[in-house]
Prior knowledge:
- 4 copies of one chain form a homotetramer.
- Chain A contains 15 helices and 9 strands.
- The two termini of chain A are 18 Å apart.
- Chain A is α+β, with helices and mostly antiparallel strands.
- Chain A has helices spanning 4-14, 28-31, 65-76, 79-83, 99-103, 114-127, 131-143, 152-160, 163-174, 182-193, 199-205, 207-210, 224-237, 243-249, 286-299; strands spanning 22-23, 39-44, 49-53, 59-60, 196-197, 254-256, 261-266, 270-275, 278-279.
- Chain A has 2 domains: 4-63 and 195-299, 3-Layer(aba) Sandwich (Beta-lactamase); 65-193, Beta-lactamase.
- In chain A, helix 8 crosses helix 10 (182-193).
- The interface between A and B is medium-sized, with 32 and 32 residues.
- Chains A, B, C, D: Its EC number is 3.5.1.2.
- Chains A, B, C, D: This is Glutaminase.
- Chains A, B, C, D: InterPro entries: Beta-lactam/transpept-like, Glutaminase.
Amino acid sequence: xxxxxxxxxxxxxxxxxxxxxxxxxxxxxxxxxxxxxxxxxxxxxxxxxxxxxxxxxxxxxxxxxxxxxxxxxxxxxxxxxxxxxxxxxxxxxxxxxxxxxxxxxxxxxxxxxxxxxxxxxxxxxxxxxxxxxxxxxxxxxxxxxxxxxxxxxxxxxxxxxxxxxxxxxxxxxxxxxxxxxxxxxxxxxxxxxxxxxxxxxxxxxxxxxxxxxxxxxxxxxxxxxxxxxxxxxxxxxxxxxxxxxxxxxxxxxxxxxxxxxxxxxxxxxxxxxxxxxxxxxxxxxxxxxxxxxxxxxxxxxxxx
Amino acid sequence: xxxxxxxxxxxxxxxxxxxxxxxxxxxxxxxxxxxxxxxxxxxxxxxxxxxxxxxxxxxxxxxxxxxxxxxxxxxxxxxxxxxxxxxxxxxxxxxxxxxxxxxxxxxxxxxxxxxxxxxxxxxxxxxxxxxxxxxxxxxxxxxxxxxxxxxxxxxxxxxxxxxxxxxxxxxxxxxxxxxxxxxxxxxxxxxxxxxxxxxxxxxxxxxxxxxxxxxxxxxxxxxxxxxxxxxxxxxxxxxxxxxxxxxxxxxxxxxxxxxxxxxxxxxxxxxxxxxxxxxxxxxxxxxxxxxxxxxxxxxxxxxx
Amino acid sequence: xxxxxxxxxxxxxxxxxxxxxxxxxxxxxxxxxxxxxxxxxxxxxxxxxxxxxxxxxxxxxxxxxxxxxxxxxxxxxxxxxxxxxxxxxxxxxxxxxxxxxxxxxxxxxxxxxxxxxxxxxxxxxxxxxxxxxxxxxxxxxxxxxxxxxxxxxxxxxxxxxxxxxxxxxxxxxxxxxxxxxxxxxxxxxxxxxxxxxxxxxxxxxxxxxxxxxxxxxxxxxxxxxxxxxxxxxxxxxxxxxxxxxxxxxxxxxxxxxxxxxxxxxxxxxxxxxxxxxxxxxxxxxxxxxxxxxxxxxxxxxxxx
Amino acid sequence: xxxxxxxxxxxxxxxxxxxxxxxxxxxxxxxxxxxxxxxxxxxxxxxxxxxxxxxxxxxxxxxxxxxxxxxxxxxxxxxxxxxxxxxxxxxxxxxxxxxxxxxxxxxxxxxxxxxxxxxxxxxxxxxxxxxxxxxxxxxxxxxxxxxxxxxxxxxxxxxxxxxxxxxxxxxxxxxxxxxxxxxxxxxxxxxxxxxxxxxxxxxxxxxxxxxxxxxxxxxxxxxxxxxxxxxxxxxxxxxxxxxxxxxxxxxxxxxxxxxxxxxxxxxxxxxxxxxxxxxxxxxxxxxxxxxxxxxxxxxxxxxx
Lengths: 304, 304, 304, 304
């Protein structure tokens, strides 16, 4: 199990990388974040959380929310109701591409690209009365932090720049793979993306992925088999168009967000979250990826 | 560690699936194989090999040879000499597609699709005097079976139906990513694909992937880091367009061939090989995949 | 110049083809049309109109409206304001594909595929206060028929099935090539598509394309150069994915609609309109195309 | 009919454009041509040829040879034997793209992109004993110039850089749409591309396209209907990815080559050839296109 000192060493080691990436700037609310942040937190299956650097500072979780959404969908639907509407394969395309969705007649490749996450949001919308509220409540519960909020400025800003996601949703609707009002679902989707959490919050919230489906309080959120399957999907599709490189360098199932966060797990042992806002060319945190690589190497652990 | 009885149970469990897939028939030499075969072999890191069903019967390893080729390239070249010519990402396209190669200007997505494997063969051709001989010797050594041969009828038949692979090679050549004579490299490539091995041969030969790079005789073939990286690439790209589904169902890094073989590993523990000639729609052994799924489930093991 | 008898012969010749195509059925309002209709009308540059078959019966002009829209845009904007937002090349893709629009970063190939026509509608929306009214007035004036109307049932039905077109518009918006509210523009677009005209109405209205830009009343609508350019675009891009085949068989610049109408011109001589609701696999009127082929052959005329 | 003075004016008008394009440099033999050349020749259906500028200087006809090849195929095969193996539609892709050929399972879009021209060469190879000799003889006959030769240096240079074309041919072979030895057909193909002709030679040789299929000596080469169809295909697909723009600006069926030549016809009146080695971004002669535009404008002629 990692110790505090190891986390400090990891942060020290990658801090020189700050300045080499580029903060997401497609919306003003994200562009204004301080680029010089770097944090890491680890939660082990005994429930202990340790951290280093800016690991207590909240940031916009963005696409990391796709993990929570898929998990919620797994609790609301039978498996085949989900997997008949979204695939399980890496996309081989940019995270927001419409080409694949058109060529494969409205079926997104996996739940972690935008198209797939929008289908998952559409599924949740069909089943829940107040999906925004329920998703936030669920994430608060998972992290044990009742004060988590969704950043209204970020959510609104995303919505105002949502033409690409609207195009994806309407394209799927034209193939019969989107049932609710596009606008309503986009609002819910951006609400989840705009939730602010710290590395500590996220490593706690993701513990169920390391603990055969049991969350921080010991409650079985999804089954052990579902947990293993979720980790498999994260390993093959969790890092946009950089899943192969991430597996090669880091060797943990993981999910990144354009806010600079990355969560990752070593099944049976621990969940990890790193955060550093500057991104590499694939849209993944540059220093964050390096921190996870360093962490695995020093710990001598990997799933491979 | 698995016992003989468990392997027998796995074989019995999946035998009813025989008849549901389709033997590869793009060349006559493969089409004539008996479809009712099913075998499994496991080699643990203590060097023990056990098996069940037709695990001693040799079959055409086909694309499983791509693992041996990449391994040989790793022993001949610096890392950057390889990864500047082939990527590490899932392709999101059919295993023999030219679209991606054209759009990405001659750079194949990974070493396990045809385009990438041809680049690896081109690299080997540039460095070795007698690549066919050397590859066969290497595989004989890895499996501890000096009698292994490449099936001339299969190799010639592949060559006579090689227009698609020739197109891929020439396309890469047009982008400057193929240096040797296309015909010569294709001959070497098919020679390796046509090597005949049993499940027992293959599980032994692949032990280094489970044993941090050490082969059956304890010799360090590639480094522990390279082994971990190889397993990462197999997990994200080893099963053609079905890598996500395979990870989801089986949860082991693996590589399949159209001869019906699949190799897979649990790092630190064991290498496995299954064989059953009938393929599913992705070109992976139908009963073989089911056998691996059953094996992992009964053993309660997975990397996820 | 053609005579009445020739038109009758053309209609008789192609009537046996009725029953071989398929009426557009993507919206109920179009699916219910009588499939056994066939009409042809010709307007010569002296202003005379003759016809045969069901040439006085109004039908839904659908994509033929794209000719009127581009013409109106040419009267509202400078050339470069239009051609910086839409190209002049054949698309090589289905009329409603998003692939090309994504790959070419929001710039549609030409004004006669859906994406290009939506950009033209967006341009018109930016310049006119009441675009629906103005377009209808303009078409009434061109055809000399003040009673023309847009079919509300068809327009509403199109709108209710507009997900694909909405996806295209939002995709262009995401690239900065769509300025107005998507919903508003779609409403205008469908209003024009749903205008009902007969072959006689349409051959009269299109006379300006045959008469160097002068309409039926002798007024210069667009310049001779613009007219020649419009005909060039119709010849290369007017028939969806069947422009080459249409040029090969018919040899006239033309534009088709899924309502079964096709307009075509022999520059300097005449405008023609045929109508028959059953479509071929490219979405062009099956008997209508044959009628134009027969007409050109009997007349011994073609632009080639 | 144009007079000598008009041709001189056209040349004078476009000469200032020299220096704005880029000579084809993918093979050394083409890169060394003098860029400051500009010529134009016109042959009217009475058999008269006039010219201006460098209209008597021979250049490499390159893709203009595709017109001669298709014409020869039309004399050797039934229509359906040709059009079952190559389409009639604009490609919407770069002239040497493999994407379309793969997606449409080996069927090239039209006979004027490389893939289509290779299929035509394959057809000719199947029927003729000495296709290189026969093609040269035919072109000598058409132009009335027995001294025409194919430039061996250019042909060999093309062959040495033929990986892309080899890839296309092998891809079509993999779909069963290429019957002869790839190398042999490539040799014939490049032999025709490397034929050297002057503007005068080419305008004479192409007269049959303007004269309902009758060549300079009055012999019927192809039928009037075939001639009209050939012109239709040239209008929609003759200028690579710039067919729409060429129709818009020039308004004549035409075919360009990377040697800087463009042939064009006004059916019933005349054939024209321009030459200037510098190309625009679409690979068509920059000053040559401008010369044709100027020519049509001054003459007040166009097919539209």
